[in-house]
Design brief:
globular
Length: about 100
């Protein structure tokens, strides 16, 4: 049995944007970069709990819409000088579908 769960088609997630999915009662932000790579993490900034899914994606970072904290999509770490982490959730694309390991 696989622990990968299909959550969306890639074309359902806007480039340089995100889509929110729910799993185990938590909201997960699934991000798509300009290069069609996908990343996922809990939809909550470590600073004040802002909705990261509403932030701006640039390169492999998302900027929290509330206070401007930048979070690396690959590792979930805040970009200096900020501190904090949002643990990433493994994501992959297969046959045009996005899967998360939840």
């Amino acid at each position: 049995m696989s622990d990968w769960v299909k959550v969306a088609r890639l074309d359902e997630i806007p480039r340089l944007g995100a889509r929110v999915v729910r799993s185990a009662g938590k909201e997960i932000a699934v991000f798509r970069t300009a290069e069609d790579q996908v990343y996922a993490m809990h939809d909550q900034c470590p600073h004040k709990g802002g909705p990261l899914s509403q932030g701006i994606v640039a390169g492999r970072q998302v900027t929290c819409p509330l206070h401007g904290m930048r979070i690396g999509l690959e590792d979930g770490q805040a970009v200096a000088p900020d501190h904090g982490c949002v643990p990433p959730i493994p994501a992959k694309i297969e046959d045009g579908a996005v899967y998360l390991r939840i």
